[in-house]
Every structure is written in C-alpha cells, then in structure tokens.
Amino acid sequence: MSDDLSALDKPELRSLARQRRHAFVATLDPLAHRLAFKAVPSPLARRLADTRVIALYMGLEDEAPAQRLGPQLQAMGKTLALPRVLDRLGSMDFLAWEPDAHLLPGPFGTSHPEPGDGPVTPDAIIAPLVGFDRAMNRLGQGGGYYDRAFARFPDALRIGLAWSAQELDAVPADPWDLPLDLILTEVELIEGTGA
C-alpha cells in the first residue's frame, strides 16, 4: 500500500477499508469469488495440524467468507465452531457447527448454531477483518468481540481472514489489541514474526 493514512483514526480507517473491500468485491469475477477461500493452503494446514476445534464465522455482506473453509477443515478431522453473540457489550462464545446445520438468528445480522452441548473451547480462531497491516494488527468492526475472545482464549491461534484489498499501511494498535498470528487473503498467507 502506498497511501499515507497515518493521520486517520480507527473509525476513519474502518470506513476507508470497508470502501476498498466493497469496491474490490464488486469487481471480482463471480467464479473467482465462489472459489475464494475454499482451500486451506499447505502452510496453514501445517499450522493447524495440532488443533482440534477451529472457530470460523459466517461472512456478512462483502466480508471474506470463512464458512467456505469449513468442508476442507472438517475433512482434516477438525471440529468446527461459530461465534454466538451473547450481548451488546462485546461478549461471545463459540458453539460446535456442522456446515449444513440450521442456524439461529443473532444480533447484528449474525447467526449461530443450536446450543447443543454448550460452548466449546477453540484452539484456533479465524476472525473477520475490516483492515489489517503487515505488523499483524487487526482492524475489526469496533465492538471488541474478537478482542475479548482472543483475551479469553490466549492459547488459541489467532488467524485473520480478509480480501487483499483490505490491507493498510498501518493499523493503530491499542494496549489491549493482540496481534494476529496469521492472515489469510485470497492471494497469500501472511505469517507474523512470532508465528
């Protein structure tokens, strides 16, 4: 990225990143869009080898569709989970999920599985991104849900999923922001130096 965005705050960066994401997705060939994120790249598969439970999310609007990774992760023997928003204060947990299972509506247009046996503990959390940078900083929606989930499950591998157009030069990081371990876009897997 070559723009100087250093003077922008997080809300302004979110707006810019959403505009870029929308414009990018609008120009994608429909076949390319359908095929994006259907395969787990080998380096990511190796990083997930020792994980058992992987939390995905159901992509909303033009978000990168994490749910498309589900069938291949399931074929690798992984238990899948989706987030369940518990309240408007940033709390959520994760419920086991089968890709064809019925989903219940949740707040903010989200959906989640039936509670079944209750929440599960993820070994890896794949989170949606509004924006990201090469320092592995994540710009989320601003509600703090994934910040709290990362803090609640500190040993879980933190993976961001985004379209490449959402990359920014720099994302401001607050003291509570935990860097991502990996970022997957439709064109590459970015690994943090500590990953």
TrEMBL record:
Keywords: ATP-binding, Ligase, Magnesium, Metal-binding, Nucleotide-binding. Its cofactor is Mg(2+). The keyword Transcription regulation does not apply. ATP binds at K10, P11, E12, L13, R14, R138, L139, G140, Q141, G142, G143, G144, Y145, Y146. InterPro entries: FTHF_cligase, FTHF_cligase-like_sf, NagB/RpiA_transferase-like. One of its GO terms (molecular function) is metal ion binding. Substrate binds at M58, E63. It catalyses: (6S)-5-formyl-5,6,7,8-tetrahydrofolate + ATP = (6R)-5,10-methenyltetrahydrofolate + ADP + phosphate. One of its GO terms (biological process) is tetrahydrofolate interconversion. Its EC number is 6.3.3.2. Belongs to the 5-formyltetrahydrofolate cyclo-ligase family. This is 5-formyltetrahydrofolate cyclo-ligase. It comes from Sphingobium amiense.
